[in-house]
Amino acid sequence: MIEIDNLSVTFQASGRVVRAVENVSLSVAEQESFGLVGESGSGKSTILRAICGLAPISGGSIKIDGKPVTPQTKAFARQVQMVFQDPYASLHPRHTIDSVLSEPLAIHGIKNTDTRIEQALTDVGLPPAFRFRFPHQLSGGQRQRVAIARALMLEPRILLLDEPTSALDASVQAETLNLLTRLRETRGLTFLMVSHDLAVIDHMCDRILVMQHGKAVETLTREALAAAEMTTDYARALFTASADRMLA
Amino acid sequence: MTLLSVENLRVTFDTETGPVQAVRGVSFSLGRERLGIVGESGSGKTMTGRSVLRLIRPPGRIEADAMVFDGQDLMRLPEPQMRALRGRRIAMVMQDPKFSLNPVMKVGAQLTEGLRQRDRMSAKEARTKALAALEAVQIRDPERVMEAWPHELSGGMGQRVMIAMMLIPEPDLLIADEPTSALDVTVQAEVLSILDNLVKTRGMGLIFISHDLRLVSRFCDRVLVMYKGRVVEELAARDLMQARHPYTQGLLNCLPRIGGPRTPLPALDRSAAWAKE
Amino acid sequence: MTWNEWLLDPNPKSRAQSRAGQAWLQWLRFRRNHLAMAGLFITLALVLAAIFAPWIAPHDPIAQSLADRLQPPLTPGHLMGTDDFGRDILSRILYGSRITLYIVGLVILTAPVAGLIIGTVAGYFGGWVDAVLMRITDIFLAFPKLILALALVAVLGKGMENAVLAIALTSWPPYARVARAETLTVRNSDYIAAVRLQGAGATRIIWGHVMPMCLPSVIIRVTLDMAGIILTAAGLGFLGLGVQPPDPEWGVMISAGRKFLFEQWWVATMPGLAIFLVSLGFNLMGDGLRDVLDPKGAR
Q1: What is the interface pTM, i.e. ipTM, of the complex?
Q2: Can you list the positions of beta strands (E) in B71-228?
Q3: What's B53's domain CATH number?
Q4: Which has more pLDDT, B274 or B242?
Q5: Residues on chain C bordering chain B, Cβ-to-Cβ distance under 8 angstroms
Q6: Domains in chain A, start-ordered, CATH in brackets?
Q7: Mean pLDDT of all residues in chain A?
């Protein structure tokens, strides 16, 4: 469903050239959940941003359903949506939950706003009474639920998840991961998820790509990860550092 | 030997909608050891740490029956003496070095500033001392780091500089508030071993504030588990996996594990009784 | 249910209730700042004086009475004394507040709006749009405000309307600068990225998402600039290019009193005090608003 071929992303920062992603290829099947793991600066989030047209692509191609992507168009918006890492930064501080959720409907000219918003809130496990609250009247976990609801308003088939739980408390992380799993099952979504936490990725994804310094290191299946069957030193080092996240 | 003892600490914020209690009757004592404070956001763990330094700004206020550090009651100490204590005998390391270092001052200048101003040291002496501190936190090229600007440092390096800065006056107590949360797992281990080493060799007391139970159980000697401004459980770190309080158990169980089952993660059922005093 | 409960209801039933609740919280925060309240009080006094001038003014502001000329303050019937035509200074100041308010109001309705639009558009699009708009802004900023206003009035002709136009044309560039700076920090935030991903166009993003974030700093800037606007208007009046005598504009009054400054000090001092007081009021209010409206302060 998602085909990324030899993708490179290069930033020009004050005269210096930063190669954030270099020649990374990956493919995600329909309804698969694919994970990207790596430390900060490994370029894993940049790949998601490149798909959405939020990062400059300097080489390679990104295709969805065999067609090159056209980011930030209405057609693309109905196909791909993203959930950002920090729910405190991804909701407009002066917009109510109601306006956050009704905006995509207004852009695409979709009717029955009221029923759709209440349905969306129920779907992500928020009481409809929250509809007219402002983001600062919600907890971090509740905000992230709103961000997920917003991403699903246009009923996309692909959800890009950029560290969706790393800013949340452990118990809220569990609830959010459960919610995402449930939504994927009921709606047949395809996930491309980024995380630095191997345990989270392992819980959510079927296959993972380990990245370092903008390059792809190794692709592992979930079984290979649990059995510690990695072939590269870096993937092994990452695994060892996460030893306390193993099933006891 | 007790370094710090806190009795019935309360932190209250007067907001437009009435007073909000962030910390409600917390008591603990600390020797020259590693004490972990864990809890979720809003549990009051950060406020507890800041209260020890009396770093709560209005509209927040601190109340305590006693807060004794090395024989001095911090609650009754006048502000000038409190200021002399801060940084010199009790130091604090914050979560993100980006916000704690002055962006328009070179690292070296920031490290020596305190020594020059407070301890009236000569430029040369201060420099030697700063270099030694950087070496103590295992920075391989201290000369280069001294000349660097904060934005040129990586996250791990910045955090190590912060720790070095806090350790120059050789404090007796270090309060570390999520010192490794912004760091990658591999760097995290290094920073922790530096802290560990300092506690062992200098006999410093350490309050380690974190949301990460697994990290705290690995690293600390004793753990306080906080929930909604109260300590719900206090136990030895090695016994954390055998915690009795349902909140602590719930926090441990809701974490995903590598190779774990694909069933939904157990949710934490919060009982109103845990928050009662 | 009391008003207070309705306003502070954590689960508002409608958008209006939610907005009202936020405004109420901001008001509660504003009320704590005593200096800001003093500023608000002065501003309200100005507005009330302007509205009720015909009823509270003891005399006709332009009625001359040469028998009573240059009476000192506290003379019976003339609390602040009279000027060289025997007109009651208190009445002139009260009526003058109408002119001041009119000028201030017109400038507020034009300059910040223009500045906000130009600044956000420049900041959001960047590139050549930014370069062109900001160079125009720079050209306006390059001249001292009063000199530029003088030049404009000289071209447009004397009179109050032209003075307002001149002040508005010279005071928008700082707002454009402020709005642009704010836009640059907002532009790359996640919430803007999120709405772009939903296919929103530039107009919707700038109008609905960027402007609300720039508005507080512009409002604060306006209240702080208000003193400058009043002074510029007074300056133009003083130089004889703004409001024309015998209309009781404060700047014109100072200008007229200048001749007697040493012997009959009150003629120039009383309107001067009025300008000082009103400017101070707006400044104090602006300071208080900064604490309340600053989006970085609101969690």
Answers
A1: 0.90
A2: 72-73, 90-93, 173-177, 205-210, 222-227
A3: 3.40.50.300
A4: B242
A5: 8, 25, 28-29
A6: 2-245 (3.40.50.300)
A7: 90
Domain range for B181: 4-98+173-255+265-275
B123 part of contact set with chain A, CB < 8 Å:
no
**CATH superfamily of this structure's domain C38-61+75-293:** MetI-like (1.10.3720.10)
Q: A244 vs B214: CB contact, 8 Å cut-off?
A: yes
Question: What is the pLDDT at residue A248?
Answer: 54
Using a CB–CB cutoff of 8 Å, tell me whether A92 touches chain C.
yes
Count of domains observed in chain B: 1
% of chain C beyond a pLDDT of 90: 28
Distance in Å, alpha carbon of C31 to nearest chain A alpha carbon: 21
Helix axes C211-238, C160-187, angle to 10 degrees: 150
Q: Which residues of C touch B16 (CB under 8 A)?
A: 25, 28-29
Chains that contact B by 3+ CB pairs under 8 Å?
A: A, C
Q: B218 CB near a chain A CB, below 8 Å?
A: yes
User: Cα distance from A147 to chain B (closest Cα, Å)?
Assistant: 19
pLDDT digits over A171-186, tens only?
889 999 999 999 999 9
Q: Confirm if C278 and C48 have CB atoms less than 8 A apart.
A: no
Structural contact between residues B102 and B186, judged by C-beta atoms closer than 8 angstroms: no
Residue B75 falls inside a structural domain = yes
> What pTM was computed for the model?
0.84
Ramachandran class of C65: left when φ > 0, alpha when ψ lies in -120 to 50, beta otherwise: beta
How far apart CA B26 and CA B62 sit, in angstroms, is 12
Q: Is the pLDDT of residue A104 over 90?
A: yes
**Cα–Cα distance, C252 to C258 (Å, whole number):** 10
Predicted confidence (pLDDT) per residue in A128-161, tens digit? 888 888 888 888 889 999 999 999 999 999 999 9
- Is B277's pLDDT higher than 70? no
